[in-house]
Amino acid sequence: MASTATIIRRILRSRGISQSGFCPYEAVLPLLPVRSQNRLPSGAQTVIFALFPYYTGEYPHRNISRYAIPDDYHLLAGNLLGDCAKALAERFAGHSFVPFVDSSPIREVEGAYLAGLGYQGKNGMLIHPLFGSYVFIGELVTTLEIPTDGKPMGPCIGCGQCLQRCPGGALREDGMDPARCRSAITQKKGELSDWEARQIAEGGLAWGCDCCNDVCPMNRKALPSDMGVFYQQGTPVITKENLAAVRKRKAFNYRSLAVMQRNLELITQQNFSPNNVSDEGKEIEIP
How far is residue 65 CA from its own chain's centroid? Predict the structure, then answer.
C-alpha cells in the first residue's frame, strides 16, 4: 500500500507540481503576523510545501524581473494549489487542506528548507538543486499528520557573490535591508529620493532586480520551468503602450499604474537627472 506521502505527491504531480515536501507545522512556528493567520485550520499538523519553477529562458531585452514575465504567480500557483486542496480533501476525508501563496503566515523559505527542497542562500532565497532560486514557494497547511521524508540540504556554497554585488548594498551577513533593495524600491509608492530614483535608472528594470540571482554560481545550470502555465502569455518587455493591458494579469498589478509609469520613465530617460524626481524621501537617501 502506498504511503500517505506518496499518495499526496501523486496528486500534486497530476496537477503539474513535481517538487514537494513536508514539514511539521510546529517546526515553522512562530507564525508571521499577517491577516491570513485566520485561515489556518484548527489543529494543523503538517505543512505541505510545493515549488513552482518560473524560469522560462533568457530575454536579452527584458525590462522587468524574470519572475514577473509570466502571468501573476499568485493566481497561477494559487489555482493549482486550490485544485490540489480539493483533491486531497476528497482523498483524506475529514481533514482540512488550506492553500497559501506569498501572503502566508508560514515562513516559507525556512519551511521549504526543512522539508528538504533546497539550500539556504545568503540572499535569503531557497536554492533548489535543479531549478536554482528561480522558484516560487506555496504551501498547503493540513490537519493530516504526514511523516516527513526530506532532510535539510544545508547552506549554499557560501561564495558571497550575492552580498558583494548587490547594487544597493541591501544584502548583508546579518540579513537584508529593504530600504537598500533595488527590487523593493521599484515597488515603492509615492515619491522617491534621488538615490532611489538613480537605483531604478541604473538597474534598467521597471520592476524588480535580478542581480543576486544573476551572480549566484548555483543558478548557472538552473533548468527551465517544467510547468506549462508559466510559458503562457509571457511578457518580457513592458512599454507605455502595453502597460495598461498587461498589468491586470501580472505580479505587479497590486501597485498602481502610476508606479510602473514612473519606473518606465526613469529607465528610458536618456540623460537621467535626479532633479527630475521629487526628493521628498530624503530620510532614506543613501550615498
Answer: 11
